[in-house]
């Protein structure tokens, strides 16, 4: 008889396992039953820790944020533009680290205050630069939503870096849409070079915030 003792089942162990499985099976395949099988427990055992899948997704999103924040540092010398750039880039990098990472984040809520320190610092930086609190919230949430939406679409084409979903062959798309030359040519822009496109969109966003709020 084996005398090896398994680690006790707790929320952290369940979430770590779920995040590891996410890259293998994707969000649709990530069920409580699948996680329980990986943990070698019965599915009902997970309900002691999470009442349903959404509660688990909330904690997964929170843990993803914790990991992102642990690897980031806030530069007190940042201007507001640089801070928004770093915020968007950091979030995108974090989301791309997981299959369906953006879908996990979308609609989830943080289960603690792990995000509050960075948010407080960023809002403080923007208000010190002349934004009202309402404008600062608008700038930060719009940057967040842009990044989340962009990565959702990006991962629809490339679930993981270097992996491309079937059906996104740009040349085949151009052939099918040959009667619509501009739309056909746009495929290369729409479904490729995501790094460049993200940066360009981020700059458009920042320029729009500056134009709208007139803050230098």
Question: Can you walk through the features of this model?
Answer:
The protein has 216 residues and is mainly alpha-helical. The chain contains 10 helices and no strands. The chain has helices at 11-29, 32-39, 53-70, 80-96, 101-105, 116-128, 133-157, 170-176, 181-190, 194-213. The chain is flat. It starts with 10 loop residues before the first helix and ends with a helix. The mean pLDDT is 89.
* General form: flat
Helix content: 55-70%
Q: What is the H/E order? A: HHHHHHHHHH
The tally of strands reads 0
Mean pLDDT, nearest integer? 89
Q: First CA to last CA: what distance?
A: 70 Å
Low-confidence stretches: none
Task: Provide the gyration radius in Å.
Answer: 21 Å
Largest sheet geometry: none
Short description:
By secondary structure, the protein is an all-alpha fold. It contains ten helices and no strands.
């Amino acid at each position: 008889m084996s005398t090896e003792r398994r680690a006790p089942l707790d929320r952290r162990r369940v979430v770590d396992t779920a995040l590891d499985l996410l890259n293998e099976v994707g969000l649709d395949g990530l069920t409580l039953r699948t996680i329980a099988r990986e943990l070698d427990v019965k599915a009902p055992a997970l309900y002691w820790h999470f009442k349903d899948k959404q509660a688990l997704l909330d904690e997964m999103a929170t843990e993803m944020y914790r990991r992102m924040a642990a690897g980031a540092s806030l530069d007190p010398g940042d201007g507001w533009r640089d801070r928004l750039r770093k915020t968007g880039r950091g979030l995108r990098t974090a989301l791309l680290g997981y299959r369906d990472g953006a879908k996990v984040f979308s609609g989830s809520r943080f289960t603690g205050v792990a995000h509050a320190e960075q948010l407080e610092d960023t809002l403080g930086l923007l208000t010190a630069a002349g934004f009202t609190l309402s404008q600062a919230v608008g700038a930060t949430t719009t940057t967040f939503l842009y990044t989340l939406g962009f990565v959702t679409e990006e991962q629809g084409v490339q679930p993981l870096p270097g992996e491309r979903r079937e059906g996104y062959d740009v040349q085949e798309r151009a052939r099918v849409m040959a009667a619509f030359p501009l739309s056909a040519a746009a495929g290369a822009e729409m479904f490729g070079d995501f790094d460049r496109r993200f940066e360009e969109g981020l700059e458009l966003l920042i320029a729009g915030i500056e134009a709208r709020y007139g803050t230098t």
